[in-house]
Write a structure and sequence with these properties.
Oligomer: single chain
Order of helices and strands: HH
Helix content: over 70%
Structural class: mainly alpha
Number of helices: 2
Shape: rod-shaped
Number of strands: 0
Distance between the termini: 36 Å
């Protein structure tokens, strides 16, 4: 195999490695985004629970303003937590999109490197075959001239 074909084969192997790493990063980003979605859903449910409790305390026959204030504070804290989890989800989804794009590009680079390596290997094989054919022709012509 020619030096060029060997170099392109090594490059193709490197691109396969990079594509696999990008695929793993995509899987991790997907898992992170899913976890962020679940946390956001949990935080939304917590907020809804506190808001219902706050409304219930307000409409309770013996409206207890201390209980109402407690649930109002809890709802505000839950809103803050929900805002953070919403931001985290947005960041996770952005990372997921980027990882998906990176993986797509890595697959394309892997495919192109594989095609170049295959082409170079085929050209090297053709060059060897042409050299062998030329050597055989020289031998044949040499024997013919010797007779």
């Amino acid at each position: 195999m020619s030096d060029r074909a060997a170099t392109l084969a090594r490059l193709a192997a490197l691109e396969r490695f990079r594509e696999e790493r990008a695929r793993q990063q995509l899987a991790t980003a997907h898992a992170d985004a899913q976890a962020a979605r679940e946390i956001k859903e949990r935080d939304e449910a917590t907020l809804e629970t506190f808001e219902r409790a706050r409304e219930s305390a307000l409409h309770h026959p013996a409206a207890d303003m201390a209980r109402y204030a407690l649930y109002a504070d809890a709802a505000m804290a839950a809103e803050t937590v929900l805002a953070r989890s919403t931001d985290t989800l947005a960041q996770s989804e952005t990372a997921l999109r980027q990882a998906s794009e990176d993986w797509t590009l890595a697959r394309a680079r892997r495919d192109m490197a594989g095609e170049r390596a295959t082409e170079a290997r085929e050209q090297a094989e053709q060059a060897v075959e042409a050299k062998v054919a030329a050597d055989l022709m020289d031998l044949w012509l040499g024997r013919g001239a010797a007779k």
